[in-house]
Give the backbone structure.
Amino acid sequence: QVHVVESGGGSVQAGESLRLSCAASGSISIINVMSWYRQAPGKERVFIARIGSGDRTNYVDSVKGRFTISRDNAKLTGYLQMSDLKPDDTAVYFCVVNAQHWGQGTQVTVTV
């Protein structure tokens, strides 16, 4: 069984930064693929970033240039560095490890 926990969310003002963490534990030895999703109030959960083999990354257009995804397999932890945050970034952020193990989410609130 694999346990995934996100952390690092909070309430910030527009233009500020946050770094989210996604820690995996249990029956896992490597993070091959990690993705981040977010779900804004009253909206569907949507994909925002992915890191895969060879550290290849993909981002949704709305976060390109502002968000950076990374991972540290020595710690079995992934990260989402978020800069220049906007009120539209307000959502619950979820990570997915190896395409199947979801965390419980962490709230990010951005105020003007």
Q: What stands out?
A: Residues 65 and 83 are 9 Å apart (CA to CA). The chain has no helices and eleven strands. The longest strand covers residues 18-26. The two ends are 41 Å apart (CA to CA).
